[in-house]
């Protein structure tokens, strides 16, 4: 009886221990499940909080590497990354939309977009908008098989309509060569095709956009060493905008340069980001 009872007690003890281990395993699994659920809910919460931020609608045009469509059809690029980070710090969510670039002023003035952003040079437009920035420096150059800027005399040049290169050539300033003809095109990509086909002798555009085109399509054109203009690029708001976003955004740009995040973002797209961040050297 005692031996038998001892066996039963031992068996019962093993059973209890086994149950306790089972409970511990179940508790551990439950805890892990709770932690996992917490982590997942945290991610969802962050995403949800971003989606509930008030939206800033940014009007832009396709202009690689600043703004362009990726393989999934999403708008991305250097300016997109900067805008998303800057507006996030201000408590907004940036939403880019492709616009008719020639209608940009009308769109921002009537409120269809909140601002214009996309390698938009400030020079000569200071009084047309309220400007945040400059946040980057860009050189406006000419792409061709020509050696020097003076060689553009008597040549035909393609530019984007209402863009800064068009304004430079139409201004007739002392640094502008005596070109034969200028062709203004709404679609930026067409000007490169015209150069490829020999319909024009040169294309004038922002230097990094030219370099991006050559990289993307394996084109072999010469970028003249002498730039047409070195200018600051900024974000344009309507002159009637009273929300105070211009001053806030300009301050955020300064913070992003100070903490290194601006250089990090620019470095994703440009080989020497420091050159594009020398905004202090520009005359305001």
Can you offer a commentary on this structure?
By secondary structure, the chain is an alpha/beta fold. Helix content is 43%, strand content 23%. The chain is built from 9 helices and 11 strands. It has helices spanning 2-51, 78-90, 104-109, 164-171, 188-197, 207-217, 245-258, 261-267, 273-276, and strands at 55-60, 68-69, 75-76, 93-98, 115-121, 130-144, 156-160, 181-185, 202-206, 222-223, 229-237. Strands 1, 4, 5, 6, 7, 8, 9, 10 and 11 form a 9-stranded mixed beta sheet that branches. Helix 2 (78-90) crosses helix 7 (245-258). The protein starts with a helix and ends in an 8-residue tail after the last helix. Residues 1-48 have low confidence and may be disordered.
Chain-wise SSE layout:
Elements lengths: L1 H50 L3 E6 L7 E2 L5 E2 L1 H13 L2 E6 L5 H6 L5 E7 L8 E15 L11 E5 L3 H8 L9 E5 L2 H10 L4 E5 H11 L4 E2 L5 E9 L7 H14 L2 H7 L5 H4 L8
């Amino acid at each position: 009886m005692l031996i038998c009872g001892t066996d039963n007690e031992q068996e019962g003890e093993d059973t209890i221990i086994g149950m306790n281990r089972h409970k511990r395993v179940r508790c551990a699994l439950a805890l892990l499940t709770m932690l996992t659920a917490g982590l997942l809910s945290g991610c969802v919460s962050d995403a949800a909080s971003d989606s509930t931020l008030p939206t800033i609608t940014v009007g832009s045009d396709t202009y690689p590497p600043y703004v362009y469509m990726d393989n999934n059809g999403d708008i991305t690029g250097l300016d997109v990354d900067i805008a998303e980070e800057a507006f996030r710090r201000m408590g907004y969510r940036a939403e880019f939309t492709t616009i008719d670039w020639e209608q940009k002023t009308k769109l921002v003035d009537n409120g269809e977009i909140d601002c214009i952003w996309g390698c938009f040079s400030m020079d000569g437009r200071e009084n047309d908008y309220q400007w945040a920035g400059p946040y980057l420096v860009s050189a406006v150059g000419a792409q061709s098989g020509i050696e020097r800027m003076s060689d553009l005399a008597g040549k035909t040049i393609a530019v984007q309509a209402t863009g800064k290169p068009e304004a430079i050539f139409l201004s007739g300033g002392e640094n502008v060569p005596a070109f034969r003809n200028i062709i203004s095109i709404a679609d930026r990509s067409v000007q490169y095709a015209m150069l490829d086909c020999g319909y024009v002798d040169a294309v004038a555009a922002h230097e990094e956009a030219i370099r991006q085109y050559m990289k993307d399509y394996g084109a072999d054109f010469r970028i003249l060493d002498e730039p047409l203009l070195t200018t600051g690029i900024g974000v344009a708001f309507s002159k009637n905008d009273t929300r105070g976003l211009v001053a806030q955004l300009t301050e955020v740009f300064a913070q992003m340069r100070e903490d290194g995040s601006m250089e990090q973002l620019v470095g994703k797209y440009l080989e020497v980001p420091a050159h594009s961040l020398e905004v202090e050297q520009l005359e305001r």
